[in-house]
Amino acid sequence: MAVQDKVALVTGAGQGIGRAIALRLAQDGFDVAIADIEPQREKGEGVVAEIEKIGRKSVFVAADVSQKDQVDAAVDTAAEKLGGFDVIVNNAGIAQIKPVLDITPEELDKIWQININGVLWGIQAAARKFEELGHGGKIVSAASIAAVQGYPILSAYSASKFAVRGFTQAAAQELAAKGINVNAYAPGIVGTGMWDLIDAELAKLNGKPIGQNLKEAVDGIALGRIETPEDVAKVVSFLAGPDSDYVTGQTILVDGGMLYS
Ligand SMILES: NC(=O)C1=CN([C@@H]2O[C@H](COP(=O)(O)OP(=O)(O)OC[C@H]3O[C@@H](n4cnc5c(N)ncnc54)[C@H](O)[C@@H]3O)[C@@H](O)[C@H]2O)C=CC1
Ligand SMILES: CC(=O)C(C)=O
Known about the structure:
Rossmann fold; 7-stranded parallel β-sheet; 48% helix; globular; quinone binding; NAD(P)-bd_dom_sf; Sc_DH/Rdtase_CS
């Protein structure tokens, strides 16, 4: 559904699912801030150029979502440069491929800081900005099928995504009275850099050839093909737009038929 004069910020939007979400929201009529870490600036500015071609305003903001002050500053910059603030998509996340007995404190801390803390800082920054601007808004965060079922070798990742579901359910109830909807999307096996990494790391652990672990994962999908970033972006478009006004606290599976709620 078309929107007018609304502003969204997408984290981790330099590539993969975040890029597809940013482009889809621009097609829907949003002006979109592209947030990513500094080393992704060139890719992020490429997404900005793609959005400007669609005819919407866009800006790149360097922000590490694990740093609360950087998330606050990114939201402030988006609102100032794009002239409002209506939607945040807390999409940035990392995977970690490690047997449960081998996870170190440093590794656990790193994935927690990005996948959990990063989502909380996004929820807080967006809610504060909506309140400052005197209206409600939409908060949408990246979960995963691993938020609904724990996956071996992805245990810390799974636990971090369960936490995203928890924050989504609780924040939805706390923020409903302020006119803020809080939801999450739960993709399955999406063909991005993240799955290139998972496939390569699994290959090191189980000796299968590169591509084999991904193929086996995709073989289990009812709709019979790997998920594209654009498949995910369609669901985020719904959660960011007016058609989801009566939906809150939900984690929506978009996995081509892997898990059934
Ligand atoms: N690829 C998949 O199969 C699935 C991915 N997801 C989730 O979707 C989201 C996006 O994943 P993909 O696009 O596949 O990953 P990706 O690895 O292709 O892209 C992730 C983006 O997040 C950025 N990022 C990483 N750490 C960051 C930080 N500290 N601050 C700001 N940005 C940071 C990266 O620079 C990159 O641009 C993640 O939260 C992921 O967990 C969920 C289910 C399946
Ligand atoms: C990357 C991811 O979330 C899965 C479940 O593959």
